[in-house]
Amino acid sequence: MKEVRGQETEKGVFGTEHTRCHRCLTQTLCPVPCEGCSYSRYCSTSCQQNAWEEHHHWECPLGADLMAMGVMSQLALRVALKAGLKNIQMAKEAKEESTKSGLSCLNSDCRESSNCNPCHTNQPNPILYYGDSYLSVFHLSHHLSHHSPGMRFLCAVTVATLYLKLSKTGPPPASWDLSRHSRDTSQLPDGAEEEGGISDWSPELWPLGSAVLRHILQLRCNAQAILMLQDTGTPNSSVQSSKEIRIATAIFPTLSLLNHSCCPNTSLVFSTGDGADLSRSDLSADSDNVAEYSGTACGVTVTVRAAKAIAPGQEILHCYGPHSSRMVTQERVRLLQEQYYFLCQCEACAMQEQEEEEEEEEEDGAQNRHQWSGGQHKSGLLCSKCKAFLKKCSKDKGTGFVCIQSACGHHMSYSELSHRLQEIREDLEKAVVLMERERPDEALRLLKRIERQSGLILAETHPLQGELADTMARAYATMGDWNNAASHLERSAVAIGSQYGEDSIEMGRQLFKLAQLHFNGGARGPALSVIPKARCLLRLYCGPHCHELQELQAMEDCLRG
Fold first, then answer.
1. Nearest to 296 by CA among 133, 138, 139
2. Please, which contacts does 83-86 make with residues 24 or more away whose CB atoms are closer than 8 Å?
């Protein structure tokens, strides 16, 4: 129940599409393409044949149309095709029974006053929740009353178009054979035989359209991006960087039970293909007593891991995307209201709103009340005259930023600041391109010039300073200067800790790279000091079997002799 999509590049090619199997998401360097279209590729002929029988036989002629309609339409169609008429009929009967009993959907609108997400319930209804099965998917809330009339009309037209196009692709799937599922053979369409199957898309198959429409509306609030780390840069480079990208979209009904928090106490780990443990779907704990839950789809395992200590009776919270360390409060609130139809009142939002209100009430010169992450001001911006921190201007003093030192009072407009930051970003991108073209010496000269410019207006904790230091570390490492590379990566870690937190997965990945640099540079003491910190964070967020932990263990064994 997933569709393979990556991040779109400038050429319109999906980033990881050519390396992942479109059925089980196994990474492959020699994909087997579909014989009928240029879109779907598979890791083996077995996956190709299974996908063809399950869903691709009907998707293949609609490849271009499905690409234009988007991932939600394609995933909704695939879910309905694979479910079949019998499962949909059973789900509708269960829905009717629950309506008569006055019961609600699996995650219906029943907690408008919740401090987290009013779209989900704490406890699954025993009648409507069936584990990771289609019945649970069917009973996820579609939030029809929250969608605008225009959105409803667009979805309905999309589904009608899909149904008409499907009717021209050939006979329906065997799972939609009415003669196999109808309780009353007198209801069979004209011309259909009780034992022989069906040959066309008769009106009795309209439940397919209604199911697809239901799933499109559900997926807006329940689709889950499957994220993986992908190496970036040139393949032959001695130093590789990585970024997190979306390789697919899936629906996990158990995961949909979790409420949202902008500062969650859980993290998600995805395993695909051969790395997916398809036999697991239960609660367990690793050797460090970190609780986790694993749910599976075809070739995909998602593990919910406790990222913090969770007391008995405390709610398990998951981030739906907008995170407090990556997005300001107003932007998070807006996005959550637009997509999930609730006003977030989680602990992070309440705390940050209070801090922002206090900042607006401050008088000029109240420097001690503008603390952020170890004594650093929240903005991370420096006054170009006195090097004190800048703060946002109060409403009665215009827009822009002003020095927190009342004796200085230097003012910088939004346009001036935006222009200077944009220049730094553009030069940084040029330096990255130079390194990818194997010209690290030129890149390093440009980076040093950027460092001088950025130091005039940016504190060490500013995210852009962290990115700059990380890029300089990569340049030095490419040239074999491991000690200088480690020094700059330590500076980058300061910004990472300020932005994401000292116990974040981002810090864990940064410490992992730092351990590699110390190891390559022969710095035994620093490497042995960093390895336990990196191991602790990576084990917490990624589980005890991630390949980074294996590499850390190998480095430690080598250093200890």
1. 133
2. 83/134, 83/137, 83/138, 83/175, 83/211, 84/173, 84/175, 84/176, 84/181, 85/175, 85/176, 85/177, 85/178, 85/181, 85/205, 85/207, 85/208, 86/175, 86/180, 86/181
**3-class SS at 311?**
coil
Sequence-distant (6+) residues with CB within 8 A of 526 are: 486, 518
Phi and psi (nearest 5°) for 193?
-100, 150
The answer to whether the CB of 119 falls within 8 A of the CB of 341 is yes
Tens of pLDDT, residues 16-50: 456 888 888 888 888 898 888 878 888 899 999 98
> Tokens standing for 553?
């263990």
Label residue 73 left, alpha or beta by phi (over 0 means left) and psi (-120 to 50 means alpha).
alpha
Helices (H), 318-384: 329-340, 347-361
Q: Coil, strand or helix: which one is 294? A: strand
Residue spans of the chain under pLDDT 50: 1, 3-16, 109-127, 183-198, 275, 277-285, 287, 289, 363-376
Rounded distance between C-alpha atoms, residue 483 and residue 487, angstroms: 6
Q: How far apart are CA 264 and CA 259, in angstroms?
A: 9
User: Rounded to a whole number, what is the distance in angstroms from the first to the last CA of the chain?
Assistant: 48
Report residue 471 as tokens: 């890029």
Q: What is the pTM of this model?
A: 0.76
Query: If DSSP codes are grouped into helix, strand and coil, which group holds residue 231?
Result: strand
Beta strand 411-412 with 401-403: parallel, antiparallel or unpaired? antiparallel
Exposure pattern of 94-106 as b/e (b: 16+ CB <10 Å)? bbeebeeeebebb
Q: How many CA atoms lie within 13 A of 367 on its CB side?
A: 14
Cα Rg of the chain, angstroms = 27
* Closest C-alpha among 384, 421, 386 to residue 405: 386
- Of 185, 184, 189, 187, residue with least CA distance to 172: 189
